[in-house]
Design brief:
The chain has 320 residues and is α/β, with parallel strands linked by helices. The protein has helices at 13-16, 28-40, 56-59, 65-83, 102-121, 152-162, 180-186, 226-244, 270-287, 302-316; strands spanning 6-10, 46-50, 90-93, 96-98, 127-130, 169-173, 192-199, 215-220, 248-253, 292-296. An eight-stranded parallel β-sheet has the order 2-1-5-10-9-6-7-8, sandwiched between helices. Helix 5 (102-121) packs parallel to helix 6 (152-162), helix 8 runs parallel beside helix 9 (270-287) and helix 9 runs parallel beside helix 10. The chain starts with 5 loop residues before the first strand and ends with a helix. Bound molecules: zinc ion (ZN). Zinc ion is lined by residues 175-177, 254, 256, 297-298.
């Protein structure tokens, strides 16, 4: 184990959450990542760790107690429903539903982000990637939505601030969709700088007007490609990140802005994800002792997802 190691946090329970036949946010997403890291040998360079479940106290760092009670209530209701021979899912909105493993998966996902933060803060790892689902960045303080129940990145960022005593953390979101949940939770928290780039208009159809001075939102139209996105990031994110001097960087790593992903219409390629990661690693090295915790968000074309995560993790681990 060295301080330059890159961690890989996951848990088998994250595979057991599923939202019905044909849903794009499917367990096979994690298999695609695992397979790609295995065949390329990149997995061998990572320090693999099992995610513990987050506690209710952990989740309350970013969520309202009533939201958590509601999810737990649905979990109980689902168990009774299934016992009685009823459907295996409860729908929260048109494309977000729970099965009987969802609550446990969500607790492991947030637990991965917290454990990764602890390991990086302890200097056991330089940085870490959390291969987790359900994703989190649409989950608001009081609301599950858009495939998300618990905001993993917001929980971990607050954990770093409130429990590890950091004074400045950056949250970076390059998913094709705006991280409305993270914005809902962290807008106005001056200890946080959040930078995001996303297709607009697109679900969740907001973010074009930032909700706080600590939010740098870059809405871009459909069909924007890598070179334009890199130029925007260079011009709009980098000076803000440099001036903010984050002590740690959290990444909402969604890979659905990939050209081959059907949930969005942006044109990023594997090289673009490598470039973004490299630029963030440079900021982290300059200001944050290299500390980065990256959490999987979207990414629904399984081939593109596996290759993009590989490119991202190669840069985190400096294998490129
Ligand atoms: Zn997304």
């Amino acid at each position: 184990m060295t301080a330059h190691a890159t961690g890989y946090f996951t848990h088998s329970d994250c595979r057991r959450h599923e939202m019905g036949e044909g849903h794009p946010e499917c367990p096979q997403r994690l298999d695609a990542i695992e397979d790609r890291l295995l065949v390329t040998g990149v997995g061998d360079a990572l320090e693999r760790r099992e995610a513990p479940p987050a506690s209710l106290d952990d989740l309350m760092l970013a969520h309202d107690r009533m939201h958590l009670a509601a999810l737990q209530g649905l979990e109980d209701q689902l168990a009774e429903q299934i016992e009685a021979g009823g459907p295996a899912h409860i729908h929260l909105d048109a494309d977000t539903s729970m099965n009987r493993h969802t609550w446990e998966a969500a607790r492991r996902a947030a637990g991965a982000a917290i454990a990764a933060t602890d390991a990086v803060m302890a200097g056991e790892l330089e940085n870490a990637f959390c291969a987790i689902r359900p994703p989190g960045h649409h989950a608001e303080r009081k609301q599950a939505m858009g495939f998300c129940f618990i905001n993993n990145v917001a929980v971990a960022a607050r954990h770093a601030l409130d429990r590890h005593g950091l004074q400045r953390v950056a949250v970076v979101d390059f998913d094709v969709h705006h991280g409305n949940g993270t914005e809902d939770i962290l807008a106005g928290d001056e200890r946080v700088l959040m930078v995001g780039i996303f297709q607009h208009p697109l679900y969740p159809f907001c973010g074009d007007v930032p909700r706080g001075a600590n939010m740098v939102n870059l809405p871009v139209p459909a069909y924007t490609r890598g070179p334009e996105i890199r130029a925007l990031i260079e011009r709009e994110w980098m000076p803000r990140l440099e001036a903010f001097r984050p002590e740690m960087i959290f990444i909402s790593a969604g890979f659905d802005a990939h050209r081959d992903d059907d949930l969005g219409r942006l044109g990023l390629l594997e090289d673009d994800y490598a470039w973004i990661t490299r630029r963030l690693r440079e900021v982290a090295r300059r200001h944050a002792g290299g500390r980065i915790v990256s959490c999987l968000e979207g990414g629904y074309n399984l081939g593109a997802l596996g290759r993009s995560v590989e490119a991202h993790v190669r840069e985190l681990a400096e294998l490129a």
